[in-house]
Amino acid sequence: MIEFIRGYVDYVCPEYIVIDHNGIGYEIFTPNPFAFEGSHGAAVTVYTYEYVREDVHALYGFLTRQERNLFAKLLQVSGIGPKGGLAILAAGRPDELARAIEEENEAFLCKFPGVGKKTARQMILDLKGKLAMFSMPAAPRPATPLSRELAEAVAALKALGYAEREIEKIVPVLREEAMTTEQYVKRALALLLK
């Protein structure tokens, strides 16, 4: 695979750019070719993804490795091809997309061109938990320790097989009231089974 091409921007149009590298013009499809327009005649580095099929041999280019790697992940989703992947990246930032997938926000994903409910669901199924490198770290929250009873209830939920992320979603609700460990467990189970 070609990791990147460093050269001069020779041509920019709505679908692709042409990078002149030592006298060879590489046609590279990008999410936003006009991001390179101000670089006409200037040296740039374009991180590439080489897409090869029976009837297609194309280069797709990105400003960052992060964008390129997210594009490669999107291509792994059933129903998303290179054009769809480019459209998704052109319409949003990698961290927003990763966050929407992790939070299972189908409504946000359906706002991307060519993404309906079925494709949004498939994106979540195929990519959830695999995009941590694209997420921006959340602002640090002040850590307030859990009460002894709540900490015991959390330990009990983990022993029952509930995932850390499921438990983290309900802890803020549980913190609102002071209860016994048993009451916390019952309330937590009611919330988790909704």
Please characterize this protein's 3D structure.
With 194 residues, the chain is of the alpha+beta class. It folds into three domains: 4-62, Nucleic acid-binding proteins (OB fold (Dihydrolipoamide Acetyltransferase, E2P), Beta Barrel); 76-134, 5' to 3' exonuclease, C-terminal subdomain (DNA polymerase, domain 1, Orthogonal Bundle), CATH 1.10.150; 148-192. The protein has helices spanning 65-75, 82-91, 94-102, 106-109, 117-127, 148-159, 164-175, 181-192; strands at residues 4-12, 16-21, 24-29, 43-52, 57-62. A five-stranded mixed beta barrel has the order 1-2-3-5-4. Helix 6 packs antiparallel against helix 7 (164-175) and helix 7 (164-175) crosses helix 8. The protein is elongated, with a radius of gyration of 23 Å. The model is unreliable at 137-142 (pLDDT under 50).
Number of helices: 8
Just give the CATH class of the largest domain.
Mainly Beta
Radius of gyration: 23 Å
Share of β-strand residues:
15-25%
Give unreliable regions as ranges: 137-142
- The level of helicity is 40-55%
For CATH, the homologous superfamily of the largest domain is named as Nucleic acid-binding proteins
Characterize the biggest β-sheet: 5 strands, mixed, barrel
CATH topology (level 3) name of the largest domain = OB fold (Dihydrolipoamide Acetyltransferase, E2P)
Structural class: alpha+beta
**Count of all domains:** 3
Distance between the termini: 47 Å
Largest sheet strand order: 1-2-3-5-4
- Tell the overall outline: elongated
